[in-house]
Amino acid sequence: MKIQDVKVFVASPGRNFVTLKIITEEGLYGLGDATVNGRELAVAAYLKDHVAPCLIGKDAHNIEDIWQYLYRGVYWRKGPINMAAIGAVDMALWDLKGKAAGLPVYQLLGGRSRKGVTLYAHAQGATIEETLGAAQVWIDKGFKAVRLQCAIPGLEGTYGVKTKEQKDYFAMQSKRYLPPEEPWSTAKYLNFIPDLFKAARERFGDSVELLHDVHHRLTPIEAARLGKALEPYHLFFLEDAVAAENQESCAVIRQHTTTPLAIGEIYNTIWDCKGMIENQSIDYIRVAATHAGGISGVRRIADYAGLFHVRTAFHGPPDISPIGHAAHMHLGLWVPNFGIQEFVRFGTEVSDRVFSYPMRVEDGMALLEDKPGLGVDFNEDEADLHPYKRSYLPVSRLEDGTLWNW
């Protein structure tokens, strides 16, 4: 099954997505997601100019050898651009192998470990009452786990909470399409968030799992204070409580609180996660197949995590395409140490004209149709109708102007 052609597409059906298509001499093709939010053109160029020429003529069945060729052979290892490119190639090769075998990818990984993939939804609001109302909508749909994010009083703009104008992602960008800036106050945040979860438990009781994303805003001791304050409300996990670069930070938090910790959405390899997993200073690892070397890369991380009682909670933001989400669903059906799967949506009315996919949601669980490979298809003609738009994630500044972690 020799690789004959490699195509890279950058399209913006509501969000920018980088899609890789690997085509074999037999006419089969596989799809991969290489989206790196705010740096889409960098990974697209890397794929076109440096990776694609190396793939022509290779046997698409040799997934592991190609993965090692692109990781070890490049010499400049790791990094989000490199690992997203490897991830897209890896997904496309697993997709191809599944199509050649006539089997869904999860069967190639070892088969089902569960009937479906349990999801957690996002609920947000300008006030506590509005946030809880948004959570109630998901609970009424059958979701058993909801992440709560609420605007912080006294701050104009809060992570995870969009204004009406920001419902359109590109409306968040400035007229020059530069990163929007958001203010941050740790004191205001720490004084407010426990009230949100106190109100949530009073309203929902203990029948619903509650989660929260700090998004790297706190120092380890500040995160420890928050974790301890939230202990009475039994969070499923506290996500990204500190900046992710220093793996020992989570060990500091762990000394002070029993609130479960999750981290890893900006990690790209098993080496980024190794110390925290070995030390059992986290409970959930949140790598994404799109950004951490594809199915092969994430499978290694998940297997290693399972040795230390760490479970999966793969990153599932709207800036991962349906191809990346499908990879997570196949991994989630198979992985023995599954924890939970983040869910915003698999697609929108616009993106669904570009991507078709085999996933549906029932009672807070993602169910997967048994289609060969990943089960996703890509409409090239429709994608051409949605050209790339430059955009960036926001940046954050303290109230005195100091640049902070967004």
Folded structure, characterized:
The chain folds into two domains: 3-104, Enolase-like, domain 1 (2-Layer Sandwich); 108-371, Enolase-like C-terminal domain (TIM Barrel), CATH 3.20.20. The chain is 35% helix and 19% strand. The relative contact order is 0.16. The chain is α/β, with parallel strands linked by helices and 406 residues long.
CATH architecture of the largest domain: Alpha-Beta Barrel
| CATH topology term of the largest domain | TIM Barrel
Quick one: overall form?
A: globular
The mean pLDDT is 95
H-E order: EEEHHHHEHEEHEHEHEHEHEHEEEEEHEE
The main sheet comes to: 10 strands, mixed
Q: Could you state the CATH homologous superfamily of the largest domain?
A: Enolase-like C-terminal domain
* Total of DSSP H or I helical runs spanning 4+ residues: 12
Give the N-to-C terminal Cα separation.
Answer: 44 Å
What structural class do you assign from the helix and strand content? alpha/beta
Taking pLDDT < 50 over at least 5 consecutive residues as the criterion, the unreliable ranges are none
What would you say about this model in short?
By secondary structure, the chain is an alpha/beta fold. 35% of the residues lie in helices and 19% in strands. The protein is globular and about 60 Å long.
